[in-house]
Amino acid sequence: MTSRLVAGLLAVASAAGIVVGTSVEYGLPAMLPFILVALMLPGVGWLLAYRRPEVRYGWVLLAAGLSLGVGMLGTGLSSVAPAGFFPYMQSVGLALFYGLTWIFVPLLFPDGRLPSRRWRAVPWIAGIAIAAHGIGMARAGLDPSNPATVADPVAALVGGTGQFVTWIIAGFVFCGLVLRWRRSERSERAQYACMVAGVAATVAGAVLTMLFLFGLSTPWLVGLAGLALIGSLPAAIGVAIVRHRLLDIRFGIRGSRLHLVFDVRPTVGEMLSDLGTALENTPEPVEQLRRLAAAVRAGLELRWAAVTLADGTRVVAGQAEEPAVLTMPVRGGLGHIECGPRDAGPLTNQDRRLLEALAVPAGLAIQSAGLVTRLVNAQEAERRRIERNIHDGVQQQLVALIAGIELARATGAGADMLAHLREQARQTLADLRELAAGIHPSSLSQGGLVEAVEERCSRLPVRTTVTSAPALRSRRFPDEIEGAMYFTVSEAVTNALKHAGAATIEVRLSQADGRLTAAVADDGKGFDASLARRRGLATLSDRLDALGGGLSVGSEPGKGTWVNAWVPVDE
Question: What angle do CA 237, 8, 192 make, to 5 degrees?
Answer without folding.
Answer: 15
